[in-house]
Design a protein that fits this description.
Elements (H helix, E strand, L loop, with lengths): L10 E2 L15 E5 H4 L5 E8 L9 E3 L4 E7 L1 E6 L2 E6 L3 E4 L8 E3 L6 E8 L3 E6 L4 E6 L2 E5 L11
Antiparallel strand pairs: 1-2, 2-3, 3-10, 4-11, 5-8, 5-10, 6-7, 6-9, 11-12, 12-13
Length: 156
C-alpha cells in the first residue's frame, strides 16, 4: 500500500446522532484514515475539535475496544470519575464492556486533534452515559433506542 495522502481524504463532519444530539457535534470533524487505506478489522480516525467542540456524547462500547492519542493541542477527557487534561502525546484506552462513559471536549482557543483506533465488531452497542440513549450497530446500520431498548422518538 502506498503512503496515504491525507490531503485527499474526505472529511466527515456530520453526525449519525438523532436530533437534538447531532446539533451538539458542531465543530467536530474526522478523517477516516483506516477506510482510506482499505482496513477492515479496525478503524483509524483523525478527529479535529474546534474550540468549544466535543467529540461525542459521553459513551461506552459493549463490544469494541477504543484507543486515543492526542496529536495536537489539548482537550479534556471526561469520564465517570472526573476530568483529565490531555495534551499532544497523551494516550487513553477504553476496553470493551467497561461502562465508564467517556468523551473529549476542547476548552481551549486552539484546534485540538486526536487519533482514534477502534475494533470493528460485527455488532455493537454503545450506551450514552448522560442521556437516555443507546445505539445498536449491525450491517452498517444504526438503530437508536432508549436505554430500555424501545425505539428512540426524542428526548424524554
Amino acid at each position: 500500500m502506498p503512503k496515504l495522502d491525507l490531503s485527499k481524504a474526505p472529511v466527515k463532519s456530520d453526525s449519525i446522532y438523532p436530533s437534538p444530539y447531532a446539533e451538539m457535534m458542531a465543530g467536530r470533524s474526522s478523517v477516516r484514515i483506516g477506510d482510506m487505506g482499505g482496513l477492515t478489522q479496525f478503524g483509524v480516525n483523525l478527529v479535529t475539535l474546534q474550540p468549544g467542540a466535543m467529540s461525542s456524547l459521553r459513551h461506552w462500547h459493549l463490544n469494541e475496544d477504543e484507543f486515543v492519542m492526542v496529536t495536537e493541542g489539548e482537550c479534556t477527557l471526561v469520564q465517570d470519575a472526573g476530568e483529565t487534561l490531555m495534551r499532544a502525546g497523551d494516550c487513553a484506552a477504553f476496553p470493551a464492556g467497561n461502562p465508564d462513559g467517556h468523551h473529549f471536549i476542547n476548552r481551549t482557543d486552539s484546534v485540538a486533534r486526536f487519533l482514534v483506533v477502534g475494533s470493528k465488531a460485527a455488532t455493537e452497542v454503545a450506551t450514552y452515559s448522560d442521556v437516555d440513549l443507546r445505539v445498536e450497530m449491525a450491517g452498517g446500520r444504526a438503530r437508536f433506542t432508549y436505554k430500555d431498548g424501545t425505539d428512540f422518538k426524542g428526548p424524554r
